[in-house]
Amino acid sequence: MGKKVLITGGTGLIGKRLTEILLKKGYNIAYLSRKKKSIPSVQVFEWDVSKGYIEEGALDNVHFLIHLAGAGVADKRWTEERKKVIISSRTDSIQLISEKLKEKGIFPAAFVSASGSSYYGEDTGDVRHTEASPPGNDFLSKVTVLWEKAADSVGALGVRTVKLRTGIVLSKDGGALERMAQPARFGFGAPLGSGKQWMSWIHLDDLCNMYIAGLENDNWHGAYNATTGVATNEELTKAICRALDKPQWLPNVPAFALRIAFGEMANIVLGSSYLINKRVSEETDFIYKFPDLEAALKEIF
């Protein structure tokens, strides 16, 4: 019987693909879900974070733990109430697991938690960030710092903990790329704002393989910039149009229009984030399947 991997947020973009790969590698997969549901080849356990409840048996024999749960930061406008949900959905959930693990005396071999490139700030201009760079001081930075602090509560139990600061995930099944590609499919592709803002990217399969590397390799620990390369918003837009064989002729969408439409949330697409994957490159033997942007987009589209 394969080793048990317990995943929070398993039905999301990353979770679904990660599950497919883990199952092929012979792992047993279990999810924590707010509702009992039937998912092929996956054992689903209920939990209710607000009530401090995790279904009996969920944590039994857990060898690896993966934390992907969290309300989408781009799903709704950032009201004060929504901001609280964005934070609590990431932190309270893993705090609960940490408490239950300690209570039951169960200590997985490794724990890998999602984190974000926004750790360094929503808009950091042309500054290059390695894992040693300090955190920013805006909302998304605060979210990510608290997210990682919650993850460290599992590490405090003696569990080897890895945190993957992820940029834009390239996938045909959703996420930021699909939103950018939608207008391009109809010939309306256009850079956002100045188009000069940096966007750190990684192909979904490379990200999933990085999660697995974090689980399986004892030398992985702490925070890593989970990115492959960088491109400006304009470069990425043009590359998407080329991959779709569509023209890119519209002028840039002005920043003020995006701020009117999305409010503070517009910082997600207008902000610049240049990450260097220093620790992955220098401290591990991880090999990227899609190291080139054009090749990654070609595979996706």
TrEMBL record:
Domain of life: Bacteria
Matching Pfam families: DUF1731 (PF08338), Epimerase (PF01370)
Domain NAD-dependent epimerase/dehydratase: 5-218
InterPro entries given in the database record: DUF1731, Epimerase_deHydtase, NAD(P)-bd_dom_sf, SDR39U1
Domain DUF1731 stretches: 253-300
Protein family (similarity comment): Belongs to the NAD(P)-dependent epimerase/dehydratase family. SDR39U1 subfamily.
Stored NCBIfam families: yfcH
Official protein name in the record: TIGR01777 family oxidoreductase
UniProt source species: Dyadobacter pollutisoli
Lineage: Bacteria, Pseudomonadati, Bacteroidota, Cytophagia, Cytophagales
